[in-house]
Amino acid sequence: MLPSLGLPLVPGDYLFQAIGLGLTTVSTIAGVMIPITKMLAAHRKSINDKIDNLHAILNRRVEELTHTMAAHELDDERRFGEVRETVDTAGDLIRREFGETAQAIREHVRILELKDGERRLEVEHKLQETRHTLYERMDQHAGIAAERCNGLDERVRNLEISPRRRQ
Q1: What is residue 99's three-state secondary structure?
Q2: What is the per-residue pLDDT for 2?
Q3: Where would I find the H helices in the chain?
């Protein structure tokens, strides 16, 4: 007899019971796998959002540094222009009065400009190193996040495989 209907068992009823058990098993597995899949997708989206935020922050910082350096360069050029005009004007007078002294001052100004150029190159080099360091760190964080996701994927596969082993 079928327990739920009180009818006698017919040889085909075992097939219906097996199908019912199969559907129950599939629905149970789906009930576990769907939330796990949603959780993994949300976790991966969270990681991607964090990486996008890091890229945005890095790009904003690089842009700020670029603007700051450009402003400093313009200010330096303006100052050097003023200094050069002053030195040239004063140099003419000094040359007439003191001769070689004006030439020495001009040479000193040129040396200062060369040193400033070298300093500017050092700052740009350090900025590039900082950018590379930041990009490497972001790549490392992305790699770590990917490894964690792969670890979660492996755990999910193990969870999918373990009910099969029990049967």
Answers
A1: coil
A2: 45
A3: 13-98, 100-166
| DSSP secondary structure code for residue 2 in this structure | -
CA dihedral sign, ordered 109, 115, 118, 119: negative
Distance, in Å, from the CA atom of 156 to the CA atom of 53, rounded to the nearest integer, reads 28
Nearest to 60 by CA among 116, 3, 131: 131
Work out whether the CA dihedral 118, 122, 128, 131 comes out positive or negative. Answer: negative
Residue 99: its pLDDT value, please?
A: 66
Phi-psi region of 6 (alpha: psi -120 to 50; beta: other; left: phi over 0): left
pLDDT recorded at residue 1: 41
**How do the domains of the chain map onto residue ranges?**
38-166
pLDDT along the chain (167 residues), means of 10: 51 73 88 89 89 91 91 88 83 71 82 88 89 88 83 77 62
125: how many CB neighbours lie within 10 A of its CB?
Answer: 10
DSSP annotation of 87:
H
Distances (CA, A) of 58 to 124, 125, 149, 154: 16, 17, 24, 32
Closest CA to 89 of 107, 74, 106: 106
